Amino acid sequence: MVDNVRELRPRIPDTEKITINLGYVDLGQVDLMVQEGFYSNRTDFIRTAIRNQLERHADVVKQSTVRKGLDLGVRNYSREDLEAARRAGEMLHINVLGLATIAQDVTPELAGATIASVSVLGALHATPAVKAALSDRTR
């Protein structure tokens, strides 16, 4: 057994947990579809329904993404990125559809000095202290 193996970078989860409320009849119909073998479980049904709706509205999503200047996917902001922005005298505007991650070693002071605005449609991963420091510029 190897005892000295360490993870260099923490693994970023590829999903975010959400909670929804459904009426009893809707939930019963989902359960019936699962019971009849159309879906493996409730989550499979819900994911499929969401994907179908996103596909149905793909043109609108694409146009809005372009119009709003959103970075699509996963965008990581490292301490080095923020330090480079500070040296250049630039302020960053984080505008992401997907996942925006601010590295764990970024201090609240560095984030506050280099990030002008944060707009994330999806999820923002950062330390609680960094999120607090950016709370007045987060939409």
TrEMBL record:
Domain of life: Bacteria
One Pfam family matching this protein: RHH_8
GO terms of biological process kind: regulation of DNA-templated transcription
InterPro entries, alphabetized: Arc_rbn_hlx_hlx, RHH_8, Ribbon_hlx_hlx
Name of this protein: CopG family transcriptional regulator
Native source species: Bradyrhizobium quebecense
Origin organism lineage: Bacteria, Pseudomonadati, Pseudomonadota, Alphaproteobacteria, Hyphomicrobiales
